[in-house]
Specification:
Elements (H helix, E strand, L loop, with lengths): L13 H17 L2 H49 L5 E5 L4 E4 L1 H6 L10 H4 L13 E9 L4 E9 L10 E8 L1 H12 L2 E8 L2 H5 L4 H21 L3 E6 L2 E7 L3 H6 L4 H6 L10 E6 L5 H17 L4 E5 L4 E5 L11 H15 L4 E4 L6 H16 L4 E4 L8 H10 L1 H6 E2 L1 H7 L5 E5 L10 H6 L2 E6 L13 E4 L6 H10 L9 H15 L8 H12 L4 H6 L5 H12 L2 E3 L3 E6 L6 H12 L7 E7 L4 E7 L5 H7 L3 E2 L3 E6 L4 H18 L2
Parallel strand pairs: 9-10, 12-13, 12-15, 13-14, 15-16, 16-17, 19-20
Antiparallel strand pairs: 1-2, 1-5, 3-4, 4-5, 6-8, 6-9, 7-8, 10-11, 18-19, 20-21, 21-23, 22-23
Helix pairs in contact: 1-2, 11-17, 12-17, 12-18, 17-18, 17-19, 18-19, 21-22, 23-24
Length: 665
C-alpha cells in the first residue's frame, strides 16, 4: 500500500496474509505440495480482495469528504448570505463582487446590479483600505436612510475574484450611538460671560434713570437671544451677564458672527452707544473647565479692545467682531493699581531683565528705557535685552552712547541674560504678549516671575501665568502705558531728558506723530514727559533719515497700485537693513492718497516676506493681518508670510482682504 495512506484506511487482512505465507513455508518443508498450491490460491484471492476493498474504501471516503466539504461551503455561504450583518466583497477599485441579503436591504430600492461601492456610498474611502490586511473604517453614513456604520474589512486571498486584491466588508451599524452622541453634543451647555465695555465711561455722562433704561434694553436683547436658544440670562453685576445656551445653537451664533454685538449698538444715548465683550466657553470636560474657558475668552475679548466675541474650545480660539476702535478708558484707577503692584514685585526681586519684541522699534526700546528708570529708582540692577541694533534704533543708540553711556553697559544679549537669570529674577516683557515674538523666548522658559505690559490687541498666542499683566489696546503705545505707571510710583522718579525723549519717541512713532490712536490720556502722558524735559525738536531728530532713505520711499509709492477700489499695495523686492522701517513709513504715506482707506507694503526679508499694514476710519487692518498669522491694532498691523515668492505673498494678502470685505458686508 501507499506509505501515505493513513493507518485508519489500511485493511487488517494483512494478518491473514502473514499466516497463509507461514503455512506455505511449513507445507514446503514437509513436502506437502498440494497444500502449498491450494494455500497459494487462497493467498492470491485474499490479496486481490483486500486491495479491491481498500480502493473502494478510499473512494467512498473521498466522496464523503467531498460531500462534507460541499456541505460546509454551503453552510458558510448561507451563513454569509443570511448573516444579520450586511456583508459585501469589493475590489480595490470599488468594484462590487458580491453582497448578502442584509446588504441588499441597505440599497433602499437601488438596483440589485450595483457595480461599484461608490454608487452606494459616494466618497467611500478606498484609499484607507489599500495596503492593509484588515482594519475598520468608522462612521460611514448612508445618505438616503441617514444610517451610520463602522465597516470592518479583511483581505481575501489574491486572485479569488479576478486579478488584484479583494476585501470582505462587514457593516456594523452604530446609528443609535451616533444619534446619542449627537444629542449629547447638541445639548451640552455653553457658557457666555457678557460685559458692557464702556459702562463706567457712559455712567459718568448720563443720569441713573437713563443708565438703568439702557442696561434694561441690553438685558432684553440678551434674553431674546437666550430664549431662542433654549437658554437663560442671569445678571450678576450692573453691567455683567451670564448666558447659558445649548451647544447646537453656537454654530448659528458663529455663522451670524454674534449679531447681538450689532443689535446692542442700536441702543443709543445722546452721543454714545453700548458695546459688548463676550467670552464663550465650549466643549469643555466639565462645568468648572467650561467656566474657565469663558473667563479666559472674556479676558481675550477685553484685551483686544472689546466690542467682540471670543469662543474658546479645548484646542482653538475664534474671534468675531472687533472691527470698531477700542474705547479709551478715562479712569486711571487701573494704572494706579498696576503701578503699585509693579513696585512691590520689583522690590521683591533680586534683579530685573527687560525685553521687548525682536526687530525692536522706538516704542519697545523707549518703554524699556522707561522701565529701566523705574527699576533703578527701586535700587535694583537692571538690564535690557537687545541682540541687534537695527536701522530703526540707530539714532536712539547713537544718542544713548553720547548722553547716557551707562545704558550701553546695560544692553545685553540673550546669552548674557541667561547667565544673569537667578531664581528671584524678574523679567518684564514690553510691547508684545507673544512668547515667539520676544527678543529672548528662552528666558521665559527659565524665569517664572514675569510682568507683561503691552498695547496690542490680544492674540491667540499669549504668555500665560504672568505675575502681572497690563494689556490695554486703547492705548496709543507701550510708552504711554509706562509713562502712566511712572506717574503713580510712590517716590517721584526724576527722568533724565534722554529718558523723557525716548518715551516720547515711542508715542510719536506708534501714533504717526499723534495722528492715529491718540486719546486724551495720550496727550496727558505727552504733557508729563514735556514737564520732565522732552523736547519735540530732539525727538524729531531721532527720526531723521538720509536722502537715500527718502528716495526709497518715493520709489515704493511710485510702484504702488490701487486694488479693490480703496486699497494701496506696494513692495520692496530687495532686502536692506532699513527695509522694514521704509515699508512702515511708506504704508503711512500711501494713506494720504485720495480714496485710499487701507495700505500695505510687502518687504522681502532673508527668510520671509513681511507685510506692514495701515488703515483709516473703521477698517480693521488687524483682522486682515490675523488671517495671515499676524496682528497689531485696528489701524496699524503686520504679518509675516513664510515664502520668498512676492507674487505668492501678494495672493495671500489679497485673499485676506477679500475675506475681510466679505465678512464685513
Amino acid at each position: 500500500m501507499d506509505k501515505k495512506t493513513p493507518m485508519f484506511l489500511k485493511d487488517d487482512s494483512f494478518i491473514y496474509f502473514v499466516v497463509i505465507v507461514l503455512l506455505i513455508i511449513v507445507f514446503l518443508i514437509e513436502g506437502m505440495y498440494i497444500y502449498v498450491a491450494f494455500a497459494g490460491l487462497i493467498l492470491i484471492g485474499i490479496t486481490a480482495f483486500t486491495l479491491r476493498k481498500q480502493v473502494l474504501r478510499e473512494k467512498e471516503l473521498k466522496n464523503y469528504i467531498i460531500d462534507y466539504t460541499k456541505n460546509i461551503e454551503n453552510l458558510s455561504v448561507n451563513s454569509f448570505y443570511y448573516s444579520p450583518f450586511p456583508i459585501c466583497i469589493i475590489g480595490l477599485n470599488g468594484k462590487m463582487f458580491w453582497f448578502n441579503n442584509k446588504f441588499k436591504e441597505l440599497l433602499s430600492g437601488s438596483s440589485d446590479a450595483i457595480e461599484n461601492i461608490g454608487e452606494f456610498v459616494e466618497g467611500f474611502p478606498l484609499s484607507s483600505i489599500e495596503g492593509n490586511k484588515d482594519g475598520t473604517i468608522s462612521n460611514i453614513e448612508i445618505p438616503e436612510s441617514g444610517r451610520n456604520f463602522n465597516v470592518m474589512y479583511y483581505e481575501l486571498e489574491e486572485g479569488r475574484f479576478g486579478e488584484g486584491n479583494s476585501y470582505v466588508c462587514y457593516w456594523n451599524e452604530n446609528t443609535a450611538f451616533i444619534t446619542l452622541r449627537n444629542k449629547y453634543n447638541d445639548e451640552r451647555p455653553i457658557t457666555m460671560l457678557i460685559q458692557i465695555d464702556n459702562y463706567d465711561e457712559i455712567s459718568e455722562k448720563i443720569d441713573l434713570g437713563e443708565k438703568s433704561a439702557m442696561t434694561a434694553q441690553v438685558e432684553k436683547i440678551l434674553n431674546k437671544y437666550a430664549s431662542e436658544m433654549n437658554g437663560f440670562v442671569l445678571k450678576y453685576d450692573n453691567h455683567k451677564f451670564l448666558m447659558m445656551i445649548e451647544n447646537k445653537f453656537l454654530e448659528t451664533l458663529e455663522a451670524k458672527k454674534f449679531s447681538m454685538l450689532d443689535d446692542v449698538k442700536t441702543i443709543k444715548g445722546t452721543d454714545f452707544s453700548y458695546t459688548l465683550s463676550i467670552g464663550t466657553g465650549a466643549m469643555a470636560k466639565n462645568l468648572t473647565q467650561l467656566l474657565e474657558y469663558s473667563k479666559g475668552a472674556l479676558d481675550v475679548a477685553l484685551g483686544r479692545g472689546g466690542d467682540q466675541a471670543v469662543v474658546k474650545r479645548i484646542n482653538s480660539v475664534k474671534f468675531y467682531g472687533g472691527k470698531s476702535k477700542a474705547v479709551e478708558k478715562r479712569t486711571k484707577v487701573r494704572a494706579r493699581i498696576i503701578s503699585y503692584a509693579l513696585r512691590q514685585i520689583i522690590d521683591q526681586s533680586s534683579n530685573v531683565i527687560i525685553m521687548g519684541h525682536r526687530v525692536g522699534d522706538m516704542d519697545s526700546l523707549g518703554a524699556s528705557i522707561g522701565l529701566y528708570s523705574i527699576a533703578r529708582s527701586r535700587g535694583k540692577k537692571s538690564y535690557i535685552v537687545l541682540n541687534n541694533v537695527n536701522y530703526a534704533l540707530k539714532n536712539m543708540h547713537e544718542r544713548m552712547k553720547k548722553e547716557e553711556s551707562h545704558y550701553i553697559e546695560s544692553l545685553i544679549t540673550t546669552e548674557k541674560a541667561l547667565e544673569l537669570a537667578e531664581q528671584n529674577t524678574l523679567i518684564v516683557v514690553l510691547d508684545t504678549h507673544r512668547k515667539s515674538y520676544t527678543e529672548a523666548p528662552e528666558l521665559l522658559d527659565k524665569i517664572d516671575k514675569v510682568v507683561l505690559i503691552d498695547h496690542h490687541r490680544r492674540s491667540e498666542e499669549y504668555i500665560e501665568n504672568s505675575l502681572l499683566d497690563y494689556i490695554e489696546p486703547y492705548a496709543s503705545s507701550t510708552c504711554e502705558l509706562v509713562t502712566e505707571i511712572l506717574q503713580y510710583m510712590e517716590d517721584h522718579i526724576k527722568l533724565t531728558k534722554f529718558e523723557a525723549d525716548a518715551l516720547m519717541a515711542g508715542i510719536v512713532v506708534d501714533t504717526n506723530s499723534f495722528t492715529f490712536k491718540t486719546g486724551v490720556r495720550t496727550f496727558e502722558a505727552a504733557s508729563f514727559l514735556k514737564r520732565n524735559g522732552a523736547d519735540n525738536v530732539d525727538v524729531r531728530e531721532l527720526f531723521n533719515e538720509s536722502i537715500d532713505f527718502m528716495k526709497k520711499k518715493t520709489e515704493i509709492i511710485e510702484r504702488s497700485e490701487i486694488v479693490f477700489d480703496d486699497v494701496a499695495v506696494s513692495y520692496i523686492d530687495e532686502y536692506t537693513e532699513d527695509s522694514n522701517v521704509v515699508a512702515a513709513q511708506s504704508a503711512d504715506e500711501l494713506l494720504t492718497i485720495k480714496d485710499v482707506k487701507v495700505s500695505f507694503v510687502l518687504v522681502r526679508n532673508k527668510d520671509y516676506i513681511n507685510i506692514s499694514g495701515r488703515s483709516v476710519g473703521n477698517v480693521n487692518v488687524q483682522v486682515m493681518m490675523e488671517y495671515l498669522g499676524g496682528g497689531g491694532h485696528l489701524n496699524m498691523a503686520g504679518a509675516q508670510i513664510n515664502t520668498l515668492d512676492m507674487e505668492e505673498a501678494k495672493a495671500k494678502l489679497f485673499e485676506a482682504i477679500l475675506r475681510y470685505k466679505k465678512e464685513s458686508m
